[in-house]
Design a protein that fits this description.
Length: 227
């Protein structure tokens, strides 16, 4: 479970980060709204925990922008006040749940487990391109013409998800590295190539006629050869 935590109170962020890591969440932590939103745009999370009052951009705005971008990841909002307006605004902005500070660790963990279950049962969790169908909940790739399917590794899934959601565009190695590994460096470019080859093997395994084409010197794109 990959979790994004955006909380500007450093001690709180540190304590929460430790607790969540002990519970086996892979945690990315940011202390301002702008970086938090940038992280949501460039990585795929299973859960998002947003403080409301943040420098740069508040939690409500982040949630609203994430939903506008079509990101359906469950969001838990942390609110400092117990006042009803905050809760209503939070839920209106696209958050799935809220928790009033101070809260018990046990309660936070229970809410997160509930949200994670909800996320996995999200409706219409299917992306399609050509003869491909990608189940966003189970990370299963299927070929729609022959029914063959295979479970993808997380990186393979994210490569295909990124290519499918940007179909018709050539994605550069740099874009893929930043989107999937969070960094833009030579080491990450090698990762892109290695995982691109794993992903192609999965496409071949299900007998898909959709290919990941390398566009020399530019990047990659999905092509469906319907012959
Ligand atoms: Ca705060």
């Amino acid at each position: 479970m990959r979790l994004l935590l955006v909380e500007d109170e450093k001690r709180m962020a540190q304590a929460l980060g430790e607790i969540l890591r002990q519970e086996n969440y892979e945690v990315d932590s940011y202390t301002d709204g702008i970086s938090g939103l940038a992280a949501i745009e460039s990585a795929i999370y299973d859960l998002i925990v947003l403080d409301v009052m943040l420098p740069g951009m508040n939690g409500f705005e982040i949630a609203r922008k994430a939903r506008q971008m079509g990101i359906r990841t469950p969001i838990l909002m942390l609110t400092a006040k117990s006042d009803l307006d905050d809760k209503v605004t939070g839920l209106d902005s696209g958050a799935d749940d809220y928790l009033t500070k101070p809260f018990m660790t046990k309660e936070l963990l229970a809410r997160l487990r509930a949200l994670a279950r909800r996320g996995m049962n999200a409706p219409d969790g299917t992306l399609t391109f050509g003869d491909l169908s990608l189940d966003t909940n189970t990370l299963t790739l299927s070929c729609r013409t022959n029914g063959q399917s295979v479970k993808l590794g997380e990186k393979e899934y994210r490569i295909l998800e990124y290519l499918i959601t940007n179909q018709g565009q050539i994605l550069t190695r740099e874009q893929l590295a930043v989107k999937i590994w969070g960094f833009d460096s030579e080491a990450e470019y090698n990762n892109v190539e290695v995982y691109m080859s794993f992903t192609r093997k999965k496409l071949a395994f299900v007998g898909a006629k959709t290919e990941i084409k390398a566009v020399r010197g530019i990047g990659y794109e999905l092509r469906y050869r319907d012959v």
